[in-house]
């Protein structure tokens, strides 16, 4: 029995000034690829949120019974370790007048859960993944 966790990671582009803008850019990127977690850097912001749930057709059991599953992908801005404002130090962020960024990283906790049905008519056994993100 197996399952996959798909991660789409990209250096990124733009992010906007407001908090929501950075996730809007990431959500637009997520339209073009099917994944469980979408990651983007570039704007040095840090945070992760669940995206809009999506429906997916799947099959289970020896009869390959079709059913609809819901899954909520996660969007993550990966953070930064670029300390821009240090006393006596020149940096391009200081020259550009950019605000300091939130230093650090994000984390995802992935918990597998085994789903079983031992009925004699159509038994099935599969793994479902639960994802939780923290910044």
Detailed description of the structure:
This protein is mainly beta. The protein has one domain. 13% of the residues lie in helices and 40% in strands. It has 2 helices and 8 strands, in the order βαβββββαββ. The protein has helices at residues 19-30, 92-96, and strands at residues 7-10, 37-40, 46-50, 54-60, 65-71, 74-78, 107-117, 124-134. It has a 4-stranded mixed beta sheet, with helices on one face. A two-stranded antiparallel sheet has the order 4-5. Strands 7-8 form a two-stranded antiparallel sheet. Strand 1 (7-10), helix 1 (19-30) and strand 2 (37-40) form a beta-alpha-beta unit. 13% of the residues are buried.
Classify the oligomer: single chain
Low-confidence stretches: none
Order of helices and strands: EHEEEEEHEE
Q: Could you say which structural class the secondary elements and strand pairing correspond to?
A: mainly beta
Q: How do the strands of the widest beta sheet line up side by side? A: 1-2-6-3
Distance between the termini: 32 Å
Number of strands: 8
Helices, by number, come to 2
Percent of residues in helices comes to 10-25%
Mean pLDDT: 86
